[in-house]
Amino acid sequence: MSRVVPGGSWLRGWLYWMKESEAPDSYLIWAGLSAIAGCTQRKVSIRWVYHHYYTNQYVMLIGPAGIVHKSSTIDMVRQVYREVGIPTTSEALTKEALIEQMIKRGDGTI
């Protein structure tokens, strides 16, 4: 793990916080990266030439049901979002409801 995640980083702290989880390290790392990206929203970007590039990820945790703890890992990310005031959406949305939420937020996020 130390080769992948630098010491003293938020991600290292996340992994320490999640150390009792039975989820694979790869799930925990990607969930942590997703939490960072979600919390920064569109407030952090990299300017390159004439464009701003934002953290835009689609992270999928794929594995057998009930064995690798996908839901509990995702629930921990949702807890981080709640603690810092990041709105989340329900787990099951129609296409129309998803678009409606993006319009209401005004910045294209959900």
Map the helices and strands.
Layout: H1 10-17, H2 25-40, E1 45-48, E2 51-54, H3 70-84, H4 95-105
Helix pairs in contact: 2-3
Characterise this structure:
With 110 residues, this protein is mainly α. It has one domain. 45% of the residues lie in helices and 7% in strands. It has 4 helices and 2 strands, in the order H-H-E-E-H-H. It has a two-stranded antiparallel ribbon. A hairpin with a 2-residue loop joins strand 1 (45-48) and strand 2. Helix 2 packs parallel to helix 3 (70-84). The model has no long low-confidence stretch (mean pLDDT 85).
Termini gap: 31 Å
* H-E order: HHEEHH
User: pLDDT below 50 for ≥5 consecutive residues: which ranges?
Assistant: none
Number of helices, where a helix is a run of at least 4 consecutive DSSP H or I residues: 4
Largest sheet: 2 strands, antiparallel
Number of DSSP strand runs: 2
Tally of separate domains: 1
Order of strands, widest sheet:
1-2
> Compute the gyration radius: what is it?
15 Å
Arithmetic mean of pLDDT: 85
* Mass-distribution shape: globular
What structural category do the secondary elements indicate? mainly alpha
Strand content: 5-15%
Share of helical residues:
40-55%
